[in-house]
Amino acid sequence: MNYKYINNMLSEMDKDLSSKGMTRRDAMKLAGISGASFMMGGSNLSAMEKDEKPIAKSGVDAKIVIVGGGLAGMSTAARLTLNIKNPDITVIEPNKQSVSYQPGQTLVAAGIWDADEIIYNRDDFVPEGTKIIEDKVIDFDPMNNQVTTAKGQVIDYDYLVVATGLQLDFERLEGLEHAGRAYSIGDNSRLHKAMGDDSGICSIYTAEGATKTWEQMQKYIEKAKNAKDGKKVQFLFTHPGTPIKCGGAPKKIMYLANARLKEAGARENAELIFYPNGGAMFGIPEYHDAILEQFKRENFKWHYRTNLIGVEIENKIAIFDSQWQEKGPYDPVMKDFEVISKHEKIRVPYDFLHITPDAVAPREVAESDIGSAAGWVPVNKETLQHIKFKNVFALGDIAQVPMGKTGGSVRKQYKVVVDNLISQMEGKPLTSKYGGYTVCPLITDIGTVMLAEFDWSVKPTPSFPLDPLVERWVHWLMKVYALKPMTMYGMLSGKA
Amino acid sequence: MQVKFEFAIYDEALDKFELDEKIYSYELNEEETETYSILKSVDLHLYNFFQESESFKSWIKDEVYPNMIGGKIAICDINEISFRRYYFFKVTSADVHYEYFKKLFKIHHEIDWQGREEVGKEILEQLKIKRQELIIELKKDIVENEA
Ligand SMILES: Cc1cc2nc3c(=O)[nH]c(=O)nc-3n(C[C@H](O)[C@H](O)[C@H](O)COP(=O)(O)OP(=O)(O)OC[C@H]3O[C@@H](n4cnc5c(N)ncnc54)[C@H](O)[C@@H]3O)c2cc1C
């Protein structure tokens, strides 16, 4: 672990705390956390290092190939290295800067962090002894235990871990057909060319897009500040009809735009409207209710069941498929009225349009034998083992696991994959289980976060003994200062 | 105590149910009455109780469907408690049924953004399996050879 880095973050946190007349100990008390190591002092961190117990390493001997060297892939490689005596691990990853801290994109998009605070060099996180192949897998052949790369290499494996993450399907939108599909990091110039430099359209879902979002946001806040004719500047935020990474992010950026508008004294001249494809604010009823109250408090507008299907960039019109339900005929068997779904296209003018694109599995996964009909890699949701190929595991955004597309879920999943992969190699039963945990620090303002944590029980599962529905400054401190070091130096070293 | 039952007949070849529109009355003994009053608030437990009850099954075989030995049926209604949704659910069925199954099958993907059609199809997939647990086979009684 990079303790120097962590200590730097902690001293930044201390500055923030002392400006509010508080010590870190007070903050910990306030949060009710005595055991959260990242809020502790440097001395405790060194103690942690000394306390690290030696791991009984497995003597298994087999070639493990990991496809995708992002958060999930690299953390898995690191933990396998810690747990196998003579590891033979290869990571295939085309991107030199694959190990980004994507949750930080939201903060970059609101001008709180700089872009260079979230981009890292992949090679700084490659565990010792792990081979890197800088290439992209274009074909999976699980029947023959092989993958083929774009440069034409055929690579054999004994065990395969799929961690390719997901793709952002912008090209599905009418008017953005030339945008292609994007990844959160890497070269997305096609997308940004299609969106235009100064069109008011933006998306925090790519690293470059986060910076562009902040540029556009400032421009339209300025417009709202100078609005004189009583015409409100229209800020639109969308949420698509597919599972997405970090389900709260489309709302976080809305809250942050709201905060910046208030700060500029321009909120009165702006309208903030949320267009989700679904019929609720959040799948967990408790969080849905809390968010609805926040929306009312902040004077946001929202229209459920509206799915963005196109944009007219020249005219600044967003096109939505608006769906609703009507009472249908009486069903004498069920003794109830049926529900008939209807829909129509609606055209909405915007000044600033934040797009959360559909998330899809990369084609090379979706169209190969390891992908399911929906594209994602079908795994047993608890053991994370492929349902057909027992020597294949998947985790992170690409795994077909309900509610699992967050870094917080990866943090639970990679330990399960490593345990089970080793058990599989040793011919033992797979006993490690993922319980569906996921986390979404919902930024509701600059300085407050509601920490939405839940699992398959579909109930809030708070890690701290605090009311999970309250927006808190301590969670903001965690989000801004503690989660990044925990991810970058804890998870990526295979330990946290 | 008398309890009113309605049934559906299962066609295995077509994997389809047909509603028998007749209502049948079954007399519960004292012990069954007590169990009924405990279980009536938890629908599937009540179903299981009757499904497991030998005297109930004999009643069906002897009095309700004496000509259907070897066939398969399912209970649609027990007094006012209805199980019809298990056999006749459609993607367009009323919200109460749709919400009931979403909860039962824990369909809470990412954050629930799918459309009704998609969720409806998933419910139907899961129902295919769930229904099999509810089907009652009218087995031929095995007569012990008293040689
Ligand atoms: C704006 C935003 C906000 C977020 N906020 C939060 C948050 O607050 N909390 C939280 O927990 N999570 C959050 N997340 C989600 C979190 O970042 C992701 O869930 C996490 O990064 C998933 O890790 P992964 O390794 O599966 O995918 P990634 O980190 O995306 O890595 C996938 C890697 O696979 C590589 N790859 C793809 N295809 C191939 C191929 N064919 N061959 C070889 N390599 C390939 C890619 O180049 C990439 O490096 C957020 C994400 C975004 C975009």
Describe the structure.
- The complex is a heterodimer of chains A (496) and B (147).
- Chain A is of the alpha/beta class and 496 residues long.
- Chain A has helices at 3-19, 24-31, 42-51, 71-83, 104-109, 189-195, 207-226, 249-263, 285-297, 363-366, 407-425, 473-490, and strands at residues 63-67, 88-92, 131-133, 137-141, 146-149, 154-156, 159-162, 167-169, 181-182, 201-202, 233-239, 270-276, 301-302, 306-312, 317-331, 336-349, 352-354, 358-360, 392-394, 438-445, 448-454.
- In chain A, strand 5 and strand 6 form a beta hairpin.
- Residues 33-51 of chain A have low confidence and may be disordered.
- Chain B is 44% helix and 22% strand.
- Chain B has six helices and five strands, in the order E-E-H-H-H-E-E-H-H-H-E.
- The N and C termini of chain B lie far apart (40 Å).
- The mean pLDDT of chain B is 88.
- Chains A and B meet through strand 15 and strand 16 of A and helix 4 and helix 5 of B.
- The complex binds flavin-adenine dinucleotide (FAD).
- Flavin-adenine dinucleotide is lined by residues 67-73, 92-95, 98, 102-103, 105-106, 136-137, 163-165, 183-184, 204-205, 245-246, 249, 362, 364, 396-397, 405-408, 410, 439, 441 of chain A.
- Residues 67-73, 92-95, 98, 102-103, 105-106, 136-137, 163-165, 183-184, 204-205, 245-246, 249, 362, 364, 396-397, 405-408, 410, 439, 441 of chain A line the site of flavin-adenine dinucleotide.
